[in-house]
Structure prediction request, 118 residues.
Amino acid sequence: MNYLLVFLGGGIGSMLRFGVGKVFAKWETDFPLATLVSNLTACLIFTMILYFWTKELKTEWIYPFAIIGLCGGFSTFSTFSFENFQLYNQSNYFLLALNILLSVLPGIFCFYWVSDRL
Prediction:
């Protein structure tokens, strides 16, 4: 059953990621905004589920469906790495540093904030 839950959550997460990419493709920018939004939103969803799952929800299907499947399909470390590599190759060091800082630090802060409340 867990395989099916991961499959369904991953499919939904991947479709959400595709949609975010389409929405942010309308803006012409060198900054990889769609990946930033997807990754930070996945971190926020992950932390909210983690918080409520440990506090209130004790259902077995939440972890494989939402955390592994949905968040795994929605977040995109490979794209994040590739876009940083492109910024580096374009000698756009400011956007490279900004993307790394804006992607990593708030994501870690989400988990810090939730762990402080568990």
The mean pLDDT is 91. Residues 2-115 form one domain. The helical segments are 2-24, 33-55, 62-74, 77-89, 93-115. The CA atoms of residues 56 and 93 lie 44 Å apart.
